[in-house]
Amino acid sequence: MEQILLKGLDGDRTWRLADYEKRGGYAALRKIFDEKMTPEQVIDEVKKSALRGRGGAGFPTGLKWSFMPKNYTGAKYLVCNTDEGEPGTFKDRDIMRYNPHMLIEGMIIAAYAMGIPVGYNYIHGEIWEVYERAEEAIDEARAAGYLGNNILGSGFSFQLHNHHGYGAYICGEETALLESIEGKKGQPRFKPPFPASFGLYGKPTTINNTETFASVPWIILNGGEKYQALGKPNNGGTKIFSVSGHVNRPGNYEVSLGTPFAKLLEMAGGMRGGRKLKACIPGGSSMPVLTGEVMMELDMDYDSIAKAGSYLGSGAVIIMDETVCMVKALQRLAYFYYEESCGQCTPCREGTGWMHRMIDRIESGKGRNEDLDLLLNLSDNIQGRTICALGDAAAMPVRSFVKTFRDEFQYHIDHMKCMVPASS
Amino acid sequence: MTLSAESLVKIDREIAKYPADQKQSAVMSALRIAQMEKGWLAPETIAFVAKYLEMESIAVYEVASFYNMYDLKPVGKYKITLCTNLPCALSGANDIGGYLKGKLGIGFNETTPDGKYTLKEGECFGACGEAPLFILNNVKMCGSLTPAEVDKILAELE
User: Fold this and answer.
1) What sections of A35-119 are H helices per DSSP?
2) Ordered domains of chain B (ranges, CATH)
3) Residue of A244, A280, A339, A423 best to disrupt the B interface, most CBs of B under 10 A
4) B35 at the A interface (CB within 8 A)?
5) Does B36 touch chain A (CB under 8 A)?
6) pTM higher than 0.90
7) What distance in Å separates the CA atoms of residue A369 and residue A365, rounded to the nearest whole number?
8) How far apart are CA A307 and CA A383, in angstroms?
């Protein structure tokens, strides 16, 4: 199976510039300058690739790039979102610690395509060692003439800096992330205006996920059509899936979009202890949960997972076996959204706490009969009624857990205990 | 109250990353650097950072109180932040939490009487493949934890 992002890596030993160049690194950037590709040609190639945003929303990357005002002469910014905190997701950390130059090259190409002189890479607060490595990687690229003024004698200049977060899930939301770079609380902005017209410091800004940028050099080198063909129509290329939970070998697996889930599960070593797959969240904790039966028939691409009633999201595949109590699992997730709500919008600030307290009492055997319908009603009244998607992210797990495993929740209320023996 | 020359050099390096009129962008790094030197962010440390970056103290305090890796109260010499979110819980994080509580004799958000350890519960670190895991003093990620591994890590701390 073709790999792009994790190909030829040997853990901590092969992240430096010289190793990346040995793997063919920075050849795409050289190709652009040698063949005098225009910014429009670069964007066209990305459009042809059907690359979609790898951070969670799946928005077509080439289209996003074309939103940047072309003839704007003032400052413009490029921002990479490495604020990876969606429970279950750990792919960008591996790209950054094992292949940081691929991200840097992708950002330089994006900056060239949109005529952007300055970029920032916002790195999740909890991964300090990765931030330090990213600082070193940028120094290496600058010293080699890949970053800075007049890159490789092309006349194009691009400055790139790392910005270190310090513990706030909400900063993965792109406008909260911009506020955070500006030195404020990470509270999302009302949209419109969108970042392409009013972004960092009020200037036109494009924000992409780490994995998205890192996919760009291969696309330029091999062509958008070839990248698209690695996946499925409208779901181009490869994708890293972070597999966690009850499998024998949790980890990152880069596969073609459209790969059957059963194959991915097999790559991750199968179910721990040979137990039965009960449920899976296929795209990070904010996405609806699916039953094991549905998962085993599913292909891992944006459109197939959406058709099954969930989303590919960030590609975080959380595996739960038959020993899991779904009430307890949801209890932990509900606490997370309550803890991480930024407090700006009433439905989210109050609603996440309310849901958390209700699920707590169901779990501890004090649930009331009306609680389940109230939970569903509450999630409907949060979703779509907040400035950012955290409200949706808090509502979707609650609704899907209660709807898909309602008998288990009802059992907790009726019997004041769990129906799963020895649940973990 | 001031910070060491070494810390100020680090803060200046951060300030240089942003446009000249956007010094405030360095506030997160400045607070992190200050906390690493002082152990926690006392009101006078926050006031110093504010003055250094030409910000209002309250604006700096807003940032310090919003992001959860800043400590606005003293913590132990070693702060252990354990992730207990769902993917980690599926891989035994609650057992490791119980083991740590028993071994240190404290609960979450508590510090040992000798001031050596603080135990905290964290949210997703984005490293779930190595669950269960904790972060030591905000900088060192320790993964694939077992009770034996925890013993080993703690034994190496003076």
Assistant:
1) 39-49, 61-66, 91-98, 100-114
2) 5-66 (1.10.10), 78-157 (3.40.30.10)
3) A244
4) no
5) no
6) yes
7) 11
8) 20
